[in-house]
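Hey, can you fold this one?
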Amino acid sequence: MKKIALLGGTHFIGYHLLRNLFSRGYQITIFNRGITQPPIPLPEEVEVIVGNRNNPKDFQKLFCKEFDVVFDLSGYNENHILPIVRDYQSSIGHYIFCSTSSVHKASPSGLLDEESPRDFTRNTYGGDKALTEELLLSECKAQKWPVTIFRPSGVFGPYDYGRPTRQAWLVFYRLINSLPIPVINEKKPSFSLLYVDDLVNGFIQAMNNGNSHGNVYGISGDEVSSELDFIKICGEICSHDPEIHLVEDLGYEDVQLVHPWAKGDLVIDSTKVKTDLALNFTSLKAALSITYSWLTLHPEHFGRPSLRGQRYVLTRRPIPEYVKIGWRIVDRATFILRLNKQFSWIGKTSSLVFWRFIKKWLGQ
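Sure. Predicted structure:
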């Protein structure tokens, strides 16, 4: 029986990975801050250690014992990794790090593979991940420490409340309610998405394959899609013909239409991970079908989504500058309120009414 530690483990990818590992009979320990509750209570056999990796001393609670494999799903910068590299290598048989396709610079061709140029700008999500990759790869080479790195792109699926799955719900919602779906006529970026179970299978295959040591894997699904392809597939799944509303780009850069992950092409070449790890991908339609079934069972998490600025987009009008400024104010205020869930200056109900009024006034 392998002893496995998950740094993270209760949110989306980590939860899917935990369920898969548990079903295989592995002994699992989770290390996280204890803030994000899992969507379903964890099995009693799973050990949970509460700790904050921003406080390196907390790692002592985890690495007082040895692990065959450590999956790191919550490391975002070098400071998160350095204490592990420096103090606990001997306690870890194989270190599997979840990076991101955001480490890459934009590619003129839109196609990215493991050798594509990276952006090492500090204090950015992609830049910090790229620097963390370098630290791990350097240590792997110097100390012969088994490390594997994954760069997933566009991960979606059940138990996700993030952008890709939330955007899928937006499309499904507009389809089943016979609402028009605006698509900017001139922008037809191509992209590839990744079903969460396929990523988890990649993790498992790497864990059981020594050939993965020292390797980096870009990973996303086989199919290359466009916004229109994505909408069409969603329509087939929920049996509703989409009403596509093609519009010209009249300064709609602040409007999130269908595909929010990249303004240009973003396609991952997954040849290496498929070859090395004998990995197969779920078709986009099958993965979206599973996700749609889950979404329809949990609409309370997503509400009734609306497109920001749709009254301008659907009538092909430019968005006034004062409206864009208002959106930025709302976004900043919403961010602050999320940091402080307690409304000290006004009741919760009044706050909701107030923000609904503001959003309506700004055309959201």
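Residues 235 and 241 are 6 Å apart (CA to CA). Let me know if you want another pass with a different chain boundary.
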